[in-house]
Amino acid sequence: MEWNFQTAEKLAAALRAGEVTSAELTDEAIARIERDDKAINAICVPDFDRARAAARGTDRARARGEDRPLLGIPVTVKESYNMAGLPTTWGMPPQANFMPAEDAVQVSRLKAAGAVVLGKTNVPVGLQDIQSFNEIYGTTNNPWDHGRTSGGSSGGSAAALASGFGALSIGSDLAGSLRTPAHFCGIYAHKPTLGLVATRGMVAPPAPPMPVDLDLAVVGPMARTARDLTLLLDVMAGPDPLTHGVAYDVTLPPARHERLGDFRVLVLEEHPLIPTGSAVRAGVNRVAEALADGGARVERHTPLLPDLAEAGTLYTQLLVSGSVARFPIDAYEQLQTRAAGLSADDQSLDAARLRAMVFSHRDWIEVNNRRELHRHGWRQLFTEFDAVVCPITPTPAFPHDHNPNPLERRIDIDGVEYPYFDQLVWAGLATMPGLPATAIPAGRSPEGLPVGVQLIGPMLEDRTPLRLAELLEQKIGGFQAPK
């Protein structure tokens, strides 16, 4: 049997039944990587010797009667996670030789659950792009079209899963970095509720791995099925044992419903700050039709929806102000001069980005207060709805664009060009208020590229969008391997 594209759930069952060993699964995965990854370049740091040793160890553990959630299952890990014995660079050439002393908390949880780590997957420089390329490890290609990006910043993980390189992966998401690669590569990913999953050890080198509560950013699971996302989230969820974990345990509430027909869903396909391309619009509508056909209550409008234009601006301001907070003082002063030259009438996202680069603490507090109002608005919306279906980005995967100045890049939406980073507003819809969001495959573009959508759920009710994703997978199908 060919195991590389089997789900983690099926691999776990086969391992328990003695139909295959972890050593065999690991050897088969490594053989596939060695055969196919030259064209994809997803696995930037192989760890095959240790993987084989770990696989043999899990087989011995199973023979002793042990059984853990991921025992013997081959997985990959985003390069940005610390792993003792392997470099962590975040694609930054000055950190090419940085070697962390200990595993990130999520790598430790993977290993404790019995997973076999095949290696680390490629990322963009500093995790700050919608593509995955850097001078150290090169460019990761989309498995469906090597001339296009696999997405970023978890693009290596998404490409690895689409190519059959391991059954699961872990990534991170600040600006759609789990969801966008899933959308571009035709797989599943889940952005957890902010703070649900400990992030220690997923830190830019050479910074120490401190248990910091991040704003906006999360870490989360990637897989080829919705059920596998839930399996991996259960391994990852929970506070850091150095902080809240001293006193708190996590018990996520069950999904609000088990049947598709019981869900109340708001469908969004238009954003006031950027158009939705025809291929993505078709994907959203395909999901909406499946929901309606399954008996779900589907609405297209509600007065409870927070203002999307303000949400996009607030997200941009919070994202950018945090990203540039450590800029050198001379660069900061130059940005102040540029921001002062903006017209008061300029309310574009480009202007919002520039102003946010020089925010005062007072400015940030005011934006954060506006965010709290949006969070309250979402709480009210989720009294009437169980989930929101909407795009992840306006287009399928776009051609590689390595212009060194990303502000000069453009995204083509049905023949019209828009600023490259404006496409982030859809990802920011869930990120700004800290809501959970599950990315699912929703069909193919006319060119045959994957198209995904996201299912946004209520805060800390992560099982609700995950269950809806599972039901939709049964209704419209899910992952398909690239031909």
Give a verbal description of the structure.
With 483 residues, the protein is α+β, with helices and mostly antiparallel strands. The protein has a domain at 8-256: Amidase signature (AS) domain (Amidase signature (AS) enzymes). Helices cover 36% and strands 16% of the residues. The strands form four sheets. An eleven-stranded mixed sheet has the order 1-3-2-8-10-9-16-17-13-11-12, with helices on both faces. Strands 4-5 form a two-stranded antiparallel ribbon. Helix 2 (22-40) packs antiparallel against helix 3, helix 9 packs parallel to helix 11 and helix 9 (308-323) packs across helix 13. It is globular and about 70 Å long. The relative contact order is 0.13. The mean pLDDT is 97.
Keywords:
single chain; 483 residues; alpha+beta; Amidase signature (AS) enzymes; 11-stranded mixed sheet; two-stranded antiparallel ribbon; 14 helices; globular; AS_sf; hydrolase; Amidase; EC 3.5.1.4; Amidase_CS
Strand order of the largest sheet: 1-3-2-8-10-9-16-17-13-11-12
Backbone shape: globular
Low-pLDDT ranges: none
- The H-level CATH homologous superfamily of the domain at 8-256, spelled out, is Amidase signature (AS) domain
CATH class annotation of the domain at 8-256: Alpha Beta
Cα distance spanning the termini: 19 Å
Q: Within the CATH hierarchy, at the fold level, what is the topology of the domain at 8-256?
A: Amidase signature (AS) enzymes
Count of DSSP-assigned helices: 14
β-sheet strand percentage: 15-25%
Say how many strands there are: 17
Radius of gyration: 21 Å
The helix fraction, in percent, is 25-40%
Q: Overall mean pLDDT score?
A: 97
CATH A-level architecture of the domain at 8-256: Alpha-Beta Complex
Q: Describe the largest sheet.
A: 11 strands, mixed
What structural category characterises the helix and strand content?
alpha+beta
